């Protein structure tokens, strides 16, 4: 469905939707001068920080295109552009998007290539540079909004384990949708994405006094796009949380931002601060959605934000279409009425500032930023160039020093040995810098399972730029988890431009990670400080983006030294390994997999040891049925919870099988649910479990465990208990007979069993699984470099088998 458009633009013509006439009338004003743009912004016919910046930029572009600039020299042309932009900046001083756009446009004008040009041609080059930069602001805003929607939806999904069967509700304030941006929106864009992915139960929007952007605009957008929604007054939010938070699964308040400053304090529409206080009291997440263009690194805190105050009449008077006696709305008649004594004093700030300690997450187009262990937001990962340019040596100190990290017990010894930066760099392999840059790029991108697209898109671009043929292998809807609708894809690549590669060795790992997103961090202060013991942390730094970076670097090294032929190797980076293996399963079963590999090298954290195999995995749900009744008369009912607990005790005490190599089969009861109240005999209860299978082989292990489970349930209460069995397989064998490697057996599952075919499997990678899914996920530079050499050895060995 087409969304609303606040801005329509073609070169030389700008149309702006008059939002003061919504929701009753669609009228576009043609804006062709800076004065018209100033009035449009000041009168709030256009509003929303991104839209304001776009209208200002494009209005002056139209003005310049029409020949309004009478300057003759390059210097005069730039001075003319600067003066018009400075004028437009005062139309809405609080909105940092406008300020940032003006700075960008000034730089663009000065970057025009005019050397050797006569004055008329130089002037034309400057004007064209400005116009193209202004048009880029429009197109980039739409791309940015869709990325914010994806990142925000992914963060909320993992916070609440949301799914089409477990939806969440959201409250939003003011208007942050298509009418406030170039399209899709920021905060409302996240709501749109949740709705599209089947994760949204209900949206609530506030009236947003005194200008009623929520009731006039947001409610209009929600109705227009058929998103289930309810309008409330600003003062009803506390009651909404108190009475309906649990029933409606209200998970978050999501707001936009006119300005986010360096410490995370956020200026937004008046009333935002109150919502943050209420959300904190009721245990509801408070999320700010803003592009990085709205982040002001030069202002230290909210105390430095200039708050615009507006006219008293906006609070004491109101305009609207006339409602006839029969309830119909007469769109031809608009009246303005007084709603307060016109003599009353009025304080009417347009914005308030929400302190950073009330904000749980700030979602940008580059990823979701959460507070570190020190309680502070660190924007250096989502805007590293601006951070470095503005802060320089004031870069934030690491949240964890080396001696605070569980991996770094022996790192101090290297420091105490007095290894200087020069010796560290001299000992570094030639590929260290590109390896670490690739690893940083991957870890800096959030790619939680089912939302892997940012990492996949990056790899496509990276591999293509390095001379590979790289393809997106889109998963079909049948592969589960709404994969087709989410646009999920594997990355398949091979060296060169052959259209029909016949590689003998597949080098593969996965690009999805577990939640939550943890930003990239390196313990070295400067590049010259990086050494073997330098610690790199962040979600996916170990599992498995460390493997991905090392595998690509290893292949590059072998190709550049001509140790292997380009025809020998294929790269495959899959989605979904952490949840279901659907990415590898789809590759294995798809028509696109016409390849016959002699070997497959899988990247997982094995401490740079070669795995001889890993336990199998199985799981499912045990359900218990009972009879409800009053807890004071337990003999009148049957407690499903009691039956379930007795079965679980037997399950935990049972011998589910073992083997000499893999040890004992273990079971984890992950989720237990049941009952409706403490004084009601529960009618139903359930437990979701996972089993690490050590018995049998890959084909038989799952069946062995299932049979034992069914026996336990039958012996406990055959009538009340039932088993919903998921997928399951037994221990997986891998080849570990390669000279030069220590070996281990892993207790976790991998994609090895999901790739069918007659090939040898190797399992190897940097980092330890013991930190892979925790807050302390990290590895050393030496781990990555050792892995590169290990992968090179494995590839050469596999080609000789």
TrEMBL record:
GO molecular function terms noted in the UniProt entry: hydrolase activity; S-methyl-5-thioribose-1-phosphate isomerase activity
Pathway(s) where this gene product acts: Amino-acid biosynthesis; L-methionine biosynthesis via salvage pathway; L-methionine from S-methyl-5-thio-alpha-D-ribose 1-phosphate: step 1/6
Chain ranges passing through the membrane: none
Taxonomic superkingdom: Eukaryota
Compartment(s): Cytoplasm; Nucleus
Family the UniProt entry places it in: Belongs to the eIF-2B alpha/beta/delta subunits family. MtnA subfamily.
Keyword Ubl conjugation appears in the UniProt entry: no
Keywords: Amino-acid biosynthesis, Cytoplasm, Hydrolase, Isomerase, Methionine biosynthesis, Nucleus
Active site: 258 (proton donor)
Name recorded for this polypeptide: Methylthioribose-1-phosphate isomerase
InterPro entries attached to this UniProt entry: ArgE/DapE_CS, Bact_exopeptidase_dim_dom, IF-2B-related, IF-M1Pi, IF_2B-like_C, Initiation_fac_2B_a/b/d, M1Pi_N, NagB/RpiA_transferase-like
Annotated Gene Ontology cellular component terms: cytoplasm; nucleus
EC number: 5.3.1.23
Organism: Podospora appendiculata
Pfam families in alphabetical order: IF-2B, M20_dimer, Peptidase_M20
Statement: the UniProt record of this protein carries the keyword Amino-acid biosynthesis: yes
Domain Peptidase M20 dimerisation residue range list: 613-715
Enzyme class: isomerase
One example of a Gene Ontology biological process annotation: L-methionine salvage from methylthioadenosine
């Amino acid at each position: 469905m087409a969304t609303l458009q606040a801005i329509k633009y073609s070169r030389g013509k700008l149309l702006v939707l008059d939002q003061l006439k919504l929701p009753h009338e669609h009228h576009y004003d043609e804006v062709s001068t800076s004065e018209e743009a100033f009035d449009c912004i000041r009168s709030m016919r256009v509003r929303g920080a991104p839209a304001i910046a776009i209208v200002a930029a494009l209005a002056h572009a139209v003005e310049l295109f029409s020949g309004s600039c009478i300057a003759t020299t390059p210097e005069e042309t730039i001075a003319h552009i600067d003066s018009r932009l400075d004028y437009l900046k005062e139309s809405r001083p609080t909105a940092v998007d406008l300020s940032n756009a003006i700075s960008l446009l000034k730089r663009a004008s000065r970057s025009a290539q005019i050397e050797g040009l006569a004055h008329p041609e130089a002037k034309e080059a400057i004007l064209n540079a400005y116009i193209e930069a202004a048009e880029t602001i429009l197109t980039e805003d739409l791309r940015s909004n869709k990325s914010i929607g994806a990142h925000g939806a992914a963060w909320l999904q993992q916070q609440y384990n949301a799914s089409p069967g477990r939806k969440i509700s959201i409250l939003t304030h003011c208007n942050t949708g298509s009418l406030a941006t170039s399209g899709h929106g920021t905060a409302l864009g996240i709501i749109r994405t949740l709705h599209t992915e089947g994760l949204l139960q209900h949206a609530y929007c506030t009236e947003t006094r005194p200008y009623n952007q929520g009731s006039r605009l947001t409610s209009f957008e929600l109705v227009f796009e058929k998103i289930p929604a309810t309008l409330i007054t600003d003062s009803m939010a506390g009651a909404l949380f108190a009475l309906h938070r649990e029933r409606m699964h209200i998970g978050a308040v999501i707001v936009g931002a006119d300005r986010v400053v360096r410490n995370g304090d956020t200026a937004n529409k008046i009333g935002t601060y109150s919502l943050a206080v209420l959300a904190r009291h009721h245990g509801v997440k408070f999320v700010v959605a803003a592009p990085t263009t709205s982040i002001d690194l030069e202002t230290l805190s909210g105390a430095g934000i200039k708050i615009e105050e507006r006219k008293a009449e906006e609070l004491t008077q109101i305009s609207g279409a006339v409602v006839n006696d029969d309830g119909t709305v007469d769109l031809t008649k608009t009246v303005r009425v007084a709603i307060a004594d016109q003599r009353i004093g009025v304080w009417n700030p347009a914005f308030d500032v929400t302190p950073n300690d009330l904000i749980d997450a700030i979602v940008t187009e580059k990823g979701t930023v959460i507070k570190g262990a020190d309680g502070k937001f660190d924007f250096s990962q989502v805007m590293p160039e601006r951070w470095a340019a503005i802060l320089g040596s004031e870069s934030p100190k690491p949240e964890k020093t080396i001696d605070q990290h569980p991996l770094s017990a022996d790192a101090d010894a290297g420091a105490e040995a007095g290894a200087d930066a020069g010796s560290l760099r001299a000992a570094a392999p030639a590929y260290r810098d590109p390896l670490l840059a690739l690893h940083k790029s991957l870890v800096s991108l959030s790619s939680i399972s089912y939302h892997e697209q940012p990492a996949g898109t990056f790899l496509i671009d990276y591999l293509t730029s390095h001379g590979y043929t790289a393809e997106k292998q889109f998963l079909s809807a049948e592969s589960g988890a709404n994969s087709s609708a989410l646009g999920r894809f594997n990355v398949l690549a091979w060296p060169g431009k052959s259209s029909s590669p016949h590689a003998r060795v597949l080098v593969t790992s996965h690009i999805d990670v577990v939640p939550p997103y943890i930003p990239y961090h390196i313990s070295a202060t400067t590049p010259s400080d990086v050494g073997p013991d330098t610690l790199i942390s962040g979600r996916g730094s170990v599992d498995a983006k460390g493997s991905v970076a090392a595998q690509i670097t290893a292949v590059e090294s072998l190709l550049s030294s001509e140790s292997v032929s380009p025809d020998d190797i294929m790269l495959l980076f899959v989605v979904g390994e952490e949840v279901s293996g659907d990415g590898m399963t789809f590759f294995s079963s798809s028509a696109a997999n016409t390849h016959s590999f002699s070997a497959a090298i899988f990247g997982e954290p094995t401490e740079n040891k070669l795995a001889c195999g890993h336990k199998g995995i199985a799981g499912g749900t045990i359900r218990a049925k009972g009879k409800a009744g009053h807890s004071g008369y337990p003999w009148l009912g049957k407690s499903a919870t009691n039956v379930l607990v007795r079965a679980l005790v037997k399950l935990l005490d049972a011998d589910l099988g073992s083997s000499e190599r893999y040890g004992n089969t273990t079971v984890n009861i992950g989720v237990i649910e049941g009952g409706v109240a403490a004084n009601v005999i529960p009618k139903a209860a359930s437990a979701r479990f996972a089993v690490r299978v050590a018995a049998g082989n890959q084909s038989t292990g799952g069946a062995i465990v299932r049979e034992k489970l069914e026996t336990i349930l039958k012996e406990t209460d055959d009538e009340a208990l039932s088993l919903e069995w998921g997928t399951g397989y037994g221990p997986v064998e891998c080849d570990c007979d390669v000279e030069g490697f220590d070996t281990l057996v892993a207790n976790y599952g991998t994609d090895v069993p999901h790739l069918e075919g007659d090939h040898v499997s190797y399992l190897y990678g940097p980092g330890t699984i013991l930190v892979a899914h925790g807050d302390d996920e990290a590895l050393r530079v030496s781990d990555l470099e050792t892995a590169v050499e290990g992968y090179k050895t494995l590839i050469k060995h596999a080609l000789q088998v």
